[in-house]
Fold each of these.
Amino acid sequence: MRAVCVIGLGLIGGSVLRAAATAGRPVWGATASEADAAEARAEGFDVVDAESALRRAAEADALVVVATPLTAVREVLRQIAEHAPDALLTDVVSVKDPVDAEVRSLLPSARYAGGHPMAGVSSSGWSAGSGELFAGAAWAVIVEENTTLEAWREAAQLALDCGAQVVPTSASAHDSAVARVSHLPHLFAAVLAAVGADGGPLSLSLAAGSFRDGTRVAGTAPELVRAMTEGNRVALLDAVDDALGRLGAARGSLASTGGLKSTVDFGHAARRAFEDLASSERASATVQLNATALERLRELGERGGRVLALSAETASVELPVT
Amino acid sequence: MRAVCVIGLGLIGGSVLRAAATAGRPVWGATASEADAAEARAEGFDVVDAESALRRAAEADALVVVATPLTAVREVLRQIAEHAPDALLTDVVSVKDPVDAEVRSLLPSARYAGGHPMAGVSSSGWSAGSGELFAGAAWAVIVEENTTLEAWREAAQLALDCGAQVVPTSASAHDSAVARVSHLPHLFAAVLAAVGADGGPLSLSLAAGSFRDGTRVAGTAPELVRAMTEGNRVALLDAVDDALGRLGAARGSLASTGGLKSTVDFGHAARRAFEDLASSERASATVQLNATALERLRELGERGGRVLALSAETASVELPVT
């Protein structure tokens, strides 16, 4: 089994290191955080400095996983360019177009396919992670024009080894989707919490389940929320404009006719569609891993398909029945 | 113990009937739903037609609880005016100013104090209810200028018997608060679900915890969401305008400077304030139930205080320490 070298051992990187080890793969890591390093070592993991980790990766032809915040990615890529310039490479950063651009610029000979596991908790750092964090979660693995089957397979196999289901997609489609289903929810949670608190202690005293759930992710560390939302600026602006349009239309309807039928009915149908996707019957498809495989996988991913297994010659995909 | 007559046996009314019975109070009810009536009778409850229920309430001087949707309240109040015009009366409808106005108009001699338990689930009907639904929940009991101590005590005692904590407040302060912490969250959930679904199957396939939590209450029956949001139109417009202002400011900041610091930091602090209110140290106060008691209780409620017990002469209140 191919070795895995994880750079950054916070919530996500630390969970990847644990899960890959549980899957039986040789693993080591590096982190700029002394606290994360000490905790990982105390649990028996092999944590060294970044230069040593990357040199070892180059020798072993290991898969290098960049698991730092977006703001630290450029510096890590520079280190990789120095010590392992043609590495097999993936990352777990929450936006993909900016990381893809940096890799093309700084690491033209790396065998790279970007990734993004859709899992997390409100807390951060090594101690918040777990080898089970990704069980059953979606994990986007990016298909761009220059992505090779070799690099994509390595990134996808890591996701499967971590217990996740692989969603093949392009970087820009990924960034647009997560603006809607991850970054906008964080912005909504912040705005909702603020409007509630503006109502004073009586409002917060009367707040119950709808407010608790709607504001939960506002409890996430602000620097993490800013890194992911600000890092996906263009796609998030589109999603915010859609939301402002819909909320403004609801406001207009409530003010003029007193009714909210359209907003409430559409939202209910959308939530149903989301629930149905998780629970509905699913069809199976098998994709031959030939020269057109990545394009075919990307199409299936954008229809809601997920890769559940890879063999030497095929990918097993499940699709929602629509 | 004073008997309780519940009109409307859906999620909330059915749960009140069960909880009051568990507390040892004589209970009976009526409902326009044949299905709810049959299920309640099958569990051994005394369910009759509304006229019989109200006549019995007049004879026994029972507390009458209006537990229908807002749209049915006027018709029920007309029946009460006919069969029990000077009843002890409360209600569990989600807006309070409109119900208060109807009661003043149709039932001038009723001994009325409005109420609103802040508990619920996404499903509806008798079968969705439970005698434990209100355990530890906030239950607003309304203090208006013409509210008598007798009527307020009866409504508050019912809430305490159901396991809830009583939040004394005025009708308009209640309606403003729930617009922010209950009705706006429902509108946000609907808009968020719609923006997510607009992203197609890929978006919903990548959606995880933040989207699931942020859209949960969009799964509530649309007619219930419309009844409560449209019924609180004026206060909800204020809350929506605050939300539009904050979301628009975030949009402007993201577009111009690329930053969301102010939005994210303020939302995080607001969520913290909400969590702290639930977990922080609390001070105790005792209010003598004299002529100025209701005004004093209302003040404490608007500072986040909750009544945890009533005796013949005092109310025991807990307040957040700030």
Amino acid sequence: MNLANKLKEIIPSDRVSTNETILLNHSRDDSFHPARFTDVVIFPEEKEDIIEIIKFANINNIAVTPFGIGSGLEGSAIPVNGGISLDLKKMNKILEINPEDFLVQVQPGVTRVQLNKELGKYGLFFSVDPGADATLGGMASTNASGTTTVRYGMMKDNVRDLEVVLADGRVIRTGGNAKKSSSGYNLTELFVGSEGTLGIFTELTLQVYGIPEVITAARAVFPTTNEAIHAAQSLLTVGVPIARLEFVEGKTLKYLNHVGNTNYIEDTSLFIEFHGSKGSVIADVELTKKLFNQNGCYQLHFETNSSGRNRLWEARHNSLYALIHQNPGKQVMNTDVCVPLSKLAEVVEFTRKCKEESGLQGDIIGHIGDGNLHAGILIDTKPSFDMEKANQFNEAIVKFALLCSGTCTGEHGVGLGKKKYQSLQHGVALDVMKSIKNVLDPNNILNPGKIFDTTEILEEKTKNVLDQCPAGAEAE
Amino acid sequence: MNLANKLKEIIPSDRVSTNETILLNHSRDDSFHPARFTDVVIFPEEKEDIIEIIKFANINNIAVTPFGIGSGLEGSAIPVNGGISLDLKKMNKILEINPEDFLVQVQPGVTRVQLNKELGKYGLFFSVDPGADATLGGMASTNASGTTTVRYGMMKDNVRDLEVVLADGRVIRTGGNAKKSSSGYNLTELFVGSEGTLGIFTELTLQVYGIPEVITAARAVFPTTNEAIHAAQSLLTVGVPIARLEFVEGKTLKYLNHVGNTNYIEDTSLFIEFHGSKGSVIADVELTKKLFNQNGCYQLHFETNSSGRNRLWEARHNSLYALIHQNPGKQVMNTDVCVPLSKLAEVVEFTRKCKEESGLQGDIIGHIGDGNLHAGILIDTKPSFDMEKANQFNEAIVKFALLCSGTCTGEHGVGLGKKKYQSLQHGVALDVMKSIKNVLDPNNILNPGKIFDTTEILEEKTKNVLDQCPAGAEAE
């Protein structure tokens, strides 16, 4: 009997699919990483489905790769070992909204937009905004963040509790509903960001916020990148509680104007947003005007109504698609390093230099309030395209970030793309991660081949990567 | 050869002590938990001392219990298995202050006040304030928090990176300097709060903040507890970024006035503090006045200069000592539950009722912006004192908090006092914690007997504790 038929004996057969189109849709994500067909796709509708599937997979050594909406950018959901793709989109119930405690309980397949639509009825919102309408389970699995993280934090800061099915079918809750705790080990934050390699999330308790009395967005235009970065740093230094703080290159604004029918000045810009009471936003705006003027800002345009504001953030979020739209048939390799704020100007400069030298096309955009920078590079799957050149570009930027004590991935996750930098970034700590993986998933059935290969020999890898480190990637 | 002499062969002999007074000082903390003499106290001066000691202890199955200044309130530093008390106070160097990135690197024996004195020169401060001048290593080990957590978070939110010596002498770094990361498992937050059971911290990288332009403190006096709690909740609901929000009973104010020569009105009060720019603090104060008036506040007294403000917070921090001062010869058992905000009024009421029924003496104080409540109960080590009654009181409050999806410890840690509630609070997740402990410290040398006993059989414990749960402890 084949795998799909066996699985149909365990859970209702309409939750098991081997339809070719469905298999194709689960073979890839939004990244450039090569697709890999899986054997079967499961659509669980309740926790018990997952428990049974996992138990079966564990006994029979079958890979289980969780899948949300497939908006990942590092291949975390690509089932590289085949087996089962576990699509959680039918587990999309908002289980409880608790406005008094600013908490919601959701199933993992609920999407960000779906949740915010419902929360709006209570005057609440969920803060993490990666752009894509991802599932909350997927966002927790990669510790996603985005434009509002500078004020409201990453997923890890906003997940209060998880229900998790472990590799052997045991079910745990990692946290509780209290705002703080010193009880036991912090399993919640161990599981957030583990990309499905330690367990399958079946329920999430999330912290939400009251919709601010006043929301004001603005575009600030600067003559140079350095002035824009210094202006951003000055805001953070004096502690303005800015809610969004995005860096956009002039070239990107050109694409955005073309795609979105806007007429933003096509020069280095910061897209910003203020949240607060009327009085506090007025105070924050005044201070910002002063600091930006001191740093060469030559236009500060406010979007006070919701349509102008929505247009602005839609433009920002569509920057990746705008780039593709201008270059039909191409894909984008998106770098994702995050560095300490003092290294921001340097890493932008280094990225530009590498791009120019490589002759690659693309642009730079960044959540610069967090030191997180994306260079979107156009790539082509045609054999004539020099993929090695793109990989070298990505690697040079990662190594530069690591030399600045930064990280190879600020928000997209490790997946397939950043595996090769794990030993360089984490050193001996990677062995500790592997020990934890091994004790919780000894048969390596949970999203195998992601973050690290459990069979790697750490010492050799570290040595090799360090040997290959080019001189040009040094921080100073 | 005895243990001390063997250790003197490994590290310089002046770092090894068996002096009776020193042994006594390392046999206890600030809690009521019984003292336990250790065999030897080590004062390492560099990381290499710790590595050598740990390797020796691991081979020879000797317990190693880290010790800061001994200000813990749950016995986490009491060496219940004897062996080595590892006193880190000589590793007290501030290694680097990086104002541009709002980061500092310190050794674990640096204390909070020591760090803030140095940071002040740069216009910076470290936010976590548990009252005691604890070491930062100790604070990280229990995931300490305190009066400023409502705005700036717990230790886990402010530790960016740790250097840790593992049980086998390997040294790892858990994080990096970037503000956010999705790379690998989040080991930093696994180690923070692990109370020295997973490794010894040898270096901490901490996030710090700019000293706000304006700091304004105030006392708000209310006729009833419920009105004070509702006023606090209303502030949080509208999102006033309050920096401290403390609940103090009228009775406690009586002690404080007596000890501190103040003349605060002896009625239920909130001690609050605003941080921000001049404009934003004015806006926050105005909104607070309005909300407090609507909730029955009959006096709102501002302390705008630093001496009045320091007097206020000193009084708040001294509340525990004021209670002891009024009752010479007594000790304090301090409860530490944390509950969702909606359950706050109920848990205060329940705590009062239990206290009245038990006839125990003491008062209630709370970081109510976080839902964290302390009932300080006077206890006596004389045999005539009914210790069982105090334990039952503590247990009733813990069980009430757990029925509200809260935690048995908001900030003091599990140590010895909250071990018995771990299976009730964490269920099967406790087995996962034990698996992690076992894989990282298979010989159980690191602070054995804390958080959990590795030999416990989980299922039986859970069943027993649940069976004993009194009907009166139900939330609804």
